[in-house]
Prior knowledge:
Largest sheet: 9 strands, mixed
Shape: globular
Bound molecules: thymidine-5'-diphosphate, magnesium ion
CATH class of the largest domain: Alpha Beta
Amino acid sequence: MAKSAPSFRCSECGATHAKWSGRCEACGAWNSIVEESPLSKVPGSGLGGAKGKLIQLSALDTKEAPPKRALAGMPELDRVLGGGLVAASAILVGGDPGIGKSTLLLQAAAAFARTGLKTLYISGEEAASQVRMRAARLGLADAPVGLGAETSLRDILTTLEAERPDLVVIDSIQTMWSDRVESAPGSVSQLRAAAHELVSFAKRRGTAVILVGHVTKDGQIAGPRVIEHMVDTVLYFEGERGHQFRILRAVKNRFGPASEIGVFEMTGAGLAEVANPSALFLSERGQAAPGSAVFAGIEGTRPVLTEIQALVAPSSLASPRRTVVGLDSGRISTILAVLESRCGIPFTGLDVFLNVAGGMKVIEPAADLAAAAALLSAREDTALPADMVIFGEISLSGALRPVGQAENRLKEAAKLGFSQAIAPTGTKTDGTTGMSMRKLGDLVTFTGEMFGAG
Ligand code: TYD
Ligand code: MG
């Protein structure tokens, strides 16, 4: 057999290199390239050699009890977790610095501790006295939470082995360092090692582990993305700094629906839960104005109405502005192209600003038609009826495609006082909501009916 050449692999990004160098050209990491040993030649191993153990196979329908769950008694949080906290699960809560992660998790830790769960809160960022002060301000000082301020992973794991809590919050995973890894705290290798050890502890001892991770734009410290695959549940805490609304969104959940959201409001006394987000997101809406459309959306299992706002103005720039906040800018470009080429309504020479009110992010394609309606309404300077909701996907041909859960969307709209809806042809409704429905087949019909344009 030909002698295989040695190969080198970057331990940070996995790129392979023909020779060793100090810096990985693929990801730019220093000192991360290691020589990969070829498959070891254990005597008799490999195909045709000595045998491994037979693994035990089982049927798919083994009657195992569903995982044990604990409710915090904070409905917004419990729902996003998929119906409570699962024992032995690993949860990552990511978000921008200062968005309110520590506040949320201190409140959650206190809530779980009060239900009888043995709970520890380990802060690597703040001194114990700082956390105590915050707890006092939030009215949580009496909650039976064990508080620690530590960054050494070895000391934390030793403590966890001794204490065997039901839940531990690690704030934040980027401040933890393991003496088994040489690189600096905050590096990808440290982050991976710390997450790996804490997740294995969770699985081994049945402790639920919540890891806080800062999302960083400048890349000074490694972002939580690199450990998403190791955990069972990934939640992101989002919001605009200037707004008081905060949204906890499940982007991955092995124990419940992903894309579920919980809505909170940052107040002087911590985060308050918002039970009726639609009412909140629409609360700033005034009289019917050009450029405003109400989208009947679904977030996870729950309908949420949001207002999409558009502004269209003559541009002095060679390539006019396309500023999109809270919606997918790629989809908006597509919608503008469809409006131009299928409906003959150009936006050339016009600056376009599009925004979801209240700092909400909408990722459903079902928002296409409402976004188009807001754009057209702004361009034609004509307000849509104030009691109208809109939903539906737009295809590249300009046809409107029906979307799921129409009845849920309409029920929520009816509850909030809306009385008419526009949706694509083929939308399944049973007429029980009493909403007046108009079902349209394509965008050309829509623009003609609403604005007499096209
Ligand atoms: P924090 O939880 O420290 O954010 P993170 O852990 O994500 O970095 O929250 C920081 C912000 O929240 C800070 O700007 C102050 C604000 N805040 C309130 O408005 N009310 C409160 O009761 C608390 C505790 C914080
Ligand atoms: Mg914090």
